[in-house]
């Protein structure tokens, strides 16, 4: 029988990763303007996300603009959008599956073996969701680093990693670790079955008298 405590720990970590993935997707600070180099104007800071861009003035005023056209966006942004949304969708499905499969819930309580298999399935889905989020954030971060070190990129057009990337990386790791706990906690083949012993021969044989 699966350990309910380990299952609950894995589900909690994966759920935190699910929340972090949502936060990372909606955040605008996927990349922030870089202040490395000489003659950099720091009167304003630019941030770009998956859905809009923002400019923060030194006076504290922030102006944001939503992307006008989906087809005009770079393939990196479109691909990262799809990966993050797919990760969130799979995590949500896995949460619904785990509600049935967790040992601390009453669903399918009369079928412990099937319940543990459902929990295992949810753990696998969590791992897939975490990998999708990890691929999306790493791909976006790789392009930022590639453009930053490109000598043909103007100094004023260079960007660095934003806070949304770090949130996304942390969320992906939590989701994968949580799913791993749920998978490693799968029951053995003999779970839920009582051991069988051969019948005793003393009851079937009549008593013998010894001199």
TrEMBL record:
Keywords: Cell junction, Cell membrane, Membrane, Tight junction, Transmembrane, Transmembrane helix
Membrane topology: Multi-pass membrane protein
GO cellular component, one term: bicellular tight junction
Principal place of residence: other
The organism's place on the tree of life at top rank: Eukaryota
Region (Disordered): 189-211
A molecular-function term among this protein's GO annotations: structural molecule activity
Compartments, record wording: Cell junction, Tight junction; Cell membrane
InterPro entries to which the protein is assigned, alphabetical: Claudin (IPR006187), Claudin_CS (IPR017974), PMP22/EMP/MP20/Claudin (IPR004031)
Residue ranges of the TM segments: 83-106, 118-141, 161-184
Record function comment: Claudins function as major constituents of the tight junction complexes that regulate the permeability of epithelia.
Family in the record: Belongs to the claudin family.
Protein name as catalogued: Claudin
Natural source organism: Seriola lalandi dorsalis
């Amino acid at each position: 029988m699966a350990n309910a405590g380990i299952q609950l720990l894995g589900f909690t970590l994966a759920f935190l990763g699910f929340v972090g993935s949502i936060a990372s997707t909606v955040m605008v600070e996927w990349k922030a303007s870089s202040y490395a180099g000489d003659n950099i104007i720091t009167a304003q800071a630019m941030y770009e996300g998956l859905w809009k861009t923002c400019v923060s003035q030194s006076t504290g005023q922030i102006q944001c603009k939503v992307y006008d056209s989906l087809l005009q966006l770079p393939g990196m942004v479109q691909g990262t959008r799809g990966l993050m949304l797919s990760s969130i969708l799979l995590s949500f499905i896995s949460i619904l599956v785990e509600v049935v499969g967790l040992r601390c819930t009453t669903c399918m309580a009369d079928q412990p073996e099937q319940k543990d298999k459902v929990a295992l399935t949810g753990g696998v889905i969590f791992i897939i969701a975490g990998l999708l989020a990890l691929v999306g954030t790493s791909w976006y971060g790789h392009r930022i680093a590639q453009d930053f070190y490109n000598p043909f990129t103007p100094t004023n057009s260079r960007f660095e990693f934003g806070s949304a990337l770090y949130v996304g990386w942390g969320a992906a790791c939590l989701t994968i670790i949580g799913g791993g706990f749920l998978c490693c906690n799968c029951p053995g083949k003999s779970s839920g079955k009582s051991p069988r012993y051969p019948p005793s021969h003393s009851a079937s044989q009549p008593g013998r008298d010894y001199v």
